[in-house]
Design a protein that fits this description.
single chain; mainly alpha; about 50% helix; about 230 residues; 2 strands; 12 helices; Cytochrome Bc1 Complex, Chain D, domain 2; globular; two-stranded antiparallel sheet; about 0% strand
């Protein structure tokens, strides 16, 4: 690790500890109900229930696969949209309509929806990156948070990124680079922001393209629009 990635990784570890001791402990008191969550996803399935569905704002890209994503990460993302630390007009509108219990229920549902047995995933990616991408991954210390196979993050509030759509990952990485104070789709994150600012957009695109090729168990599973 270079000096920046070492410092940011140390910050990430301390942030996880602080979260567990403060706000994270409070969040754990709200237990998500999978069955209840299934009845609260009508606003989600129009985008996240259609395989390959694309949005055109702020550019054309596929909406992320969230079936099988970690519940703590989904809840964290929805809360970030709700508070504005992630900026996206439609997602913020949806998140603001959800109570803390609603968020926990929706997160629990999608975590179990098409769940992939993490134990069956390889410890190391079977698809090795090119030398260029390997150097970029090391520069960003990506495995330090997302796991050596990018599907077993070190903290449940971090996302699984193996197998995620490359165009979505690219947009997300650029959003961290911009920050929430710039534009309608920026994201504030004390860990990700300084890391991604090390890279050009072309390098971020190369990282995203590689991550899409990996098996991480994320899926987009269609839901019946009328239940």
């Amino acid at each position: 690790m270079n000096k920046l990635t070492t410092t940011v990784f140390a910050f990430a570890v301390s942030s996880v500890t602080a979260l567990a001791l403060s706000g994270g402990a409070m969040a754990q008191e709200v237990k998500g109900d999978i069955k209840a969550g299934q009845g609260k996803i009508d606003m989600c399935i129009g985008c996240h229930g259609i395989p390959g569905y694309q949005t055109a704002f702020p550019e054309v890209y596929k909406v992320p696969k969230i079936s099988g994503q970690g519940a703590a990460y989904i809840a964290s993302a929805l809360n970030a949209y709700k508070t504005g630390t992630r900026r996206h007009p439609s997602m913020r509108g949806i998140a603001e309509s959800l109570s803390e219990q609603d968020i926990a229920d929706v997160a629990a549902f999608y975590a179990a929806h098409g769940v992939h047995d993490g134990a069956s995933l390889p410890e190391q990616p079977s698809n090795k990156p090119s030398a260029q991408v390997e150097a970029l991954l090391q520069k960003g210390a990506c495995v330090s948070c997302h796991g050596t196979n990018f599907a077993k993050p070190i903290d449940p509030s971090y996302p699984k990124i193996a197998g995620q759509y490359a165009d979505y990952l690219f947009v997300a990485l650029k959003s961290y680079k911009a920050g929430a104070g710039h534009g309608p789709v920026g994201r504030d994150n004390g860990v990700m922001a300084p890391l991604v600012k090390q890279f050009s957009n072309a390098e971020l695109k190369a990282i995203a393209g590689y991550l899409q090729t990996l098996d991480g168990g994320l899926q987009t599973l269609p839901e019946r629009p009328f239940r």
